[in-house]
Design brief:
The structure is a single chain. With 149 residues, this protein is an alpha/beta fold. The protein has one domain (2-148): 2-Layer Sandwich (Nucleotidyltransferase, domain 5). Helices cover 51% and strands 24% of the residues. It contains four helices and five strands. It has helices at 40-53, 72-88, 100-110, 115-148; strands at residues 2-8, 12-18, 25-32, 55-62, 91-96. It has a five-stranded mixed sheet, with helices on both faces. α2 links the parallel β4 (55-62) and β5. The model has no long low-confidence stretch (mean pLDDT 87). Keywords: Cytoplasm, Hydrolase, Nuclease, Ribosome biogenesis. Its EC number is 3.1.-.-.
């Protein structure tokens, strides 16, 4: 079962996909848009990827504040998640994405990616961290279930 991870931002959506076994996440692309509220082409591209890769579930980053409050950006992510659920008919799992962009930035700096080039990759890498966190949690959940048997 393939799972799609999304890092939803005001101008971009980073996209990651799991391998068919649901063990690892790989960055696929960053979808760019001119206006934050213009989502038709963004949703159409996400739907294309869902069909192409036979995605069965979406994991969408939820950017909570460090104190766990839900701010404006998180509200927009929740609305986007609901729109995706209605348009695709797929389950959309909201996943705490605190510090994923910070971690993605750190990885790019350590990899000596030039500052002006980082914007091209940061959202896609953040989507990988979101999806991998979800996949790892599912793996550990299944391992705990096995230990109980």
């Amino acid at each position: 079962m393939r799972v799609m991870g999304l890092d939803y931002g005001s101008k971009t959506v980073g996209v990651a996909l799991s391998d068919p076994l649901g063990l690892t996440a790989q960055g696929i692309e960053t979808i760019w848009r001119r206006d934050e509220n213009k989502l038709r082409k963004t949703c159409a591209r996400i739907e294309e990827l869902i069909r192409e890769y036979e995605v069965e579930r979406i994991v969408l980053g939820l950017p909570r504040h460090m104190n766990s409050d839900v701010g404006d950006r998180a509200e927009k992510s929740l609305e986007f998640g609901e729109m995706l659920r209605r348009r695709t008919g797929l389950e959309v799992v909201m996943w705490d994405e605190r510090l994923t962009t910070v971690e993605a930035e750190r990885i790019l700096i350590e990899s000596n990616v030039r500052r002006e080039d980082r914007k091209k990759y940061i959202d896609k890498i953040a989507a990988v961290f979101i999806l991998q966190g979800y996949l790892d949690s599912k793996y550990h959940e299944a391992a705990k279930q096995e230990d109980r048997l």
